[in-house]
Amino acid sequence: MTVRDVAVEAYKEALPALAASLVGGLIAGVVLSGMRAELRAVPGLLVLVPALLATRGNVYGSLGARIATGLHQGLVEPHVTSGDERLRAAATAALANGVLTSTFAAVVAFFLLTLLGSAVAPLPVLVGIAIIAGLLSGIVLTVVVVTVVFAGYRRGRNPDTIVGPVVTTTGDVFGILFLLVAVRTVLALAGVF
């Protein structure tokens, strides 16, 4: 197999996922542009958006890489079973890391904006939004990552090639969608909306 053959094969595997990633990013942008009222109601939320989206990519990209490595090494079977401790531990750790880093990002954003003298929503509002969005998007991302990695592997695809664009797309779309749900939920509980 030549270098050219390897490159062509890699592009064949990755191009559909990259195209889906592009479309997903545009959809997330459209949803974000429709959140003007929420962004006005929660000062500092826009500062938090990139951190929350990056968290999804980092945490769940790492989950996908762990699962792919386990598949390549024969430590994980390409199907979900209740007795698979490695898969359960990796998914639980990813979900916990996602929620914790979202919470940390909200706290840092609050103190940074306060230090800079910028308008910022109360800390419990930002933290509540981060926790709800982190938990909901984390559940969806865990299911999507495990499903796509296993399905791709069973079809003879390299999961390492697929997981990046899939996590990016899913993280952007569901991250923004669940951010909207979280903002509306927290504001409704606070009696604002």
Automatic annotation (TrEMBL):
This is Mg2+ transporter. The chain crosses the membrane at residues 14-33, 89-113, 125-153. InterPro entries: SLC41_membr_dom, SLC41_membr_dom_sf, SLC41A1-3. SUPFAM superfamilies: MgtE membrane domain-like. Belongs to the SLC41A transporter family. It comes from Haloferax mucosum ATCC BAA-1512. The keyword Ion transport applies. PANTHER family: DIVALENT CATION TRANSPORTER SOLUTE CARRIER FAMILY 41 (PTHR16228), SLC41A_MGTE INTEGRAL MEMBRANE DOMAIN-CONTAINING PROTEIN (PTHR16228:SF7).
